[in-house]
Amino acid sequence: MQKLKGVGVAMVTPFTETGAIDYLALKNLIELYVEQGIDYLVVLGTTGEVVTLSSVEKETIMRTVVKYNQNRLPLVVGKGGNNTAALVKEIKETDFEGYSAILSVCPYYNRPNQEGIYQHFSAVAAAAPLPVILYNVPSRTASAIANETTLRLIKAHKNIVGIKDASANMTLNAELIKAVPEHFLVLSGDDESALNLCEIGGHGVISVIAGALPKQFSSLIHHGLKGEFTAAKRLQEQIKPMIDLLFEEGNPTGLKALLAHQNRCVNQLRLPLVKASSSLQNRIETDYSKLV
Fold first, then answer.
1. What is the pLDDT of residues 206-240, one digit of tens each?
2. Is residue 150 part of a domain?
3. 54 burial via Cβ count (<10 Å: 0-12, 13-18, 19+)
């Protein structure tokens, strides 16, 4: 899975003013990412507001992305949930043609213990026709995937090939990197600490900010992966204020405000998410003017 090193964009789902999916905006975003150095695309994740999409919409988005991507970038699709049986059924019924891997989030709300997390991902791996990337995001799920559980899953399932970790815990990340097989990907799910992960041997990031600043953030991470940390940290200093702004009122609220300012898509989200406040939009626009 070397093709999933570097920078993956956690793609938004663009909506029209009426709340329908804006497939033209989706196409234009794919073109932007291809042109500006993104390594792969991740669809139907948290940033894509997947929990507000119908099953028909999710299938249509998957097929539309394949159509417009034209095999230019590897594709990863999010498939997660807190009902293991329902998720396994969904995976078995999904057409994954054109996709390279599945990204699957730790079960949320139920708050399973480590044995429950292990059995959940074992069921996902057994059902999945593609390689699986675990997604550890304890700030959202209220349960974290322990390193011991990750190692146990890797040993039991050869198709579990990586983890996206958004904990920003470099101590645990460093311990995991030392313990996993060489082929196993340890990816950041946190833009602010992604460069730190690169410094300790991580393999890149699935990024939010790269959705609006693909060239700048790709350059930052690519420098980091090459060990060029002076150049990478210079870019990080420039981009950090925008990272803070994009997450101030949640994701993808800030990202869609910036994309709308760039005329990439309409600033529209589905409830329970709402548009960024006027104050935040103004600060995003002001900071963006310093970056272009």
1. 999 999 999 999 999 999 999 999 999 999 999 99
2. yes
3. exposed
Q: Is residue 233 part of a domain?
A: no
Residue 195 pLDDT greater than 90, yes or no: yes
Among all chains, which residue has been given the structure tokens 């998957």? Answer: 62
Output the six-digit token pair for 8.
């993956």
Contact 271, 15 (CB under 8 A): no
The pair phi, psi for residue 213, each rounded to 5°, is -125, 60
pLDDT in tens, 30-72: 999 999 999 999 999 999 999 999 999 999 999 999 999 999 9
Point out the catalytic residue in the list 135, 215, 256, 290.
135
Is 109 a catalytic site residue?
A: no
Residue 21 lies in a domain: yes
Q: From the candidates 118, 164, 215, 240, which is the catalytic residue?
A: 164
The count of structural domains within the chain is 1
Q: 135 an active-site residue?
A: yes
CB 251 within 8 A of CB 47: yes
Q: Which domain holds residue 204?
A: 2-228
In a domain, 28, yes or no: yes
**What are the angstrom distances between the C-alpha of 198 and each of 1, 168, 195?**
17, 12, 5
Amino acid at site 25: A
- What's the CATH number where 181 sits? 3.20.20.70
Query: Whole-prediction pTM value?
Result: 0.97
